[in-house]
Specification:
The structure is a single chain. By secondary structure, the chain is mostly beta strands. It folds into two domains: 166 residues, no CATH class; 104 residues, Tumour Suppressor Smad4 (Sandwich). Helix content is 8%, strand content 35%. The chain has two helices and 18 strands. A hairpin with a 2-residue loop joins strand 15 and strand 16. It is globular and about 65 Å long. Pfam families: DUF1684. This is DUF1684 domain-containing protein. InterPro entries: DUF1684.
Length: 311
């Protein structure tokens, strides 16, 4: 398996009030002549990408990740707690109790709110919840429970913490990109698996999940046929891939690419100019998936986001 390397933070962090200047400010270069319609569509997508990174559920405000043990877990900024919480927290914040795949919260501070309302006790995680549905807040901190499946060691439950006043949000650094180049947009062919293929995928913390892969996407580069295996994410296909730039110009554990579902002829578009860094490229407080062996390409994809920093 490819080397797992985690890079320091690199950010799209220009204030949202300057959205009208985002494209010129980010100053990504353009290689060759780009059709106006393609450039316009890319600019719209790029702007949404920046807005997401700075949003409440984006990557720039990630501030902590604490794994729960079965039973009671006290938490706060005092080291006497089971979980030594974020320094902006109170000495004792309360407790989380993990039992039978549910997480119960008992407050130890009357300033803590659950979805905007004061709370003393509540169930803050159960299986039918979506991640982030039940958010606890204190001062500028926001946190909620996440679940990470692991077919080998059992499911893991953790507290994901965000700081809505994180210093990263004031940083003016942007992510460097390869030059925008339409030759990295491919028309591929989708071949469905019947039944869907079950794949095992690890994340950066060596947790292993089993996912359904609906088929493979084949495309040609310099006359050679390559393929990638996606999974379904909402109304799109989601691909975690690595290539010969990984751990050099691009993030060491791979990049992400989303693509629309295939058309009636099973044709599908892969635009590597829209390849993006995972959350782990911005923060150590993330659990990013790694590419499977089938999604490690042996050539350089000189398109999409690069990574850089103090690593």
């Amino acid at each position: 398996m490819m080397e797992k390397r985690v890079y320091n933070m690199c950010h799209y962090t220009l204030p949202i009030v300057f959205l009208s200047l985002l494209i010129s400010s980010c100053n990504y270069s353009v290689k060759k002549e780009i059709p106006t319609s393609y450039l316009s569509d890319f600019n719209k997508w790029h702007t949404k990408r920046i807005v997401f990174l700075r949003s409440e559920m984006g990557y720039l405000n990630l501030a902590g990740l604490y794994w729960l043990q079965e039973g009671e877990n006290t938490f706060g900024s005092d080291s006497a707690n089971t979980i030594l919480f974020h320094e902006k927290g109170a000495p004792f914040m309360g407790s989380f109790t993990l039992q039978n795949d549910q997480v119960h919260f008992t407050s130890g501070n009357d300033q803590i709110k659950l979805n905007g309302k004061k709370v003393e006790k509540a169930i803050v995680y159960y299986d039918s919840l979506k991640e982030g549905d039940l958010k606890l807040t204190y001062s500028s901190l926001m946190w909620y429970i996440i679940k990470r499946p692991d077919v080998e060691k059992g499911d893991h439950y953790g507290i994901r913490v965000r700081d809505l006043a994180h210093e990263n949000l004031a940083d003016s650094t942007i992510i460097e990109r390869f030059p925008l180049d339409k030759s990295w947009k491919f028309k591929g062919t989708f071949t469905p698996y019947d039944p869907p293929k079950q794949i095992k995928r690890s994340n950066i913390l060596d947790m292993v999940s089993v996912l359904n892969c609906p088929g493979k996407i084949s495309f040609k580069k310099d006359g050679k046929l390559y393929s990638l295996e996606p999974v379904i994410s909402g109304d799109k296909y989601f691909i975690v891939f690595a290539d010969a730039t990984s751990a050099l110009e691009t993030y060491g554990s791979g990049r992400f690419l989303y693509t629309s579902f295939p058309d009636e002829n099973n044709e599908i578009i892969l635009d590597f100019n829209r390849a993006v860094n995972p959350a782990c490229a911005f923060s150590d407080h993330a659990t990013c998936p790694l590419p499977t062996q089938e999604n490690i390409l042996d050539f350089r994809i000189e398109a999409g986001e690069k990574t850089y920093g103090k690593h």
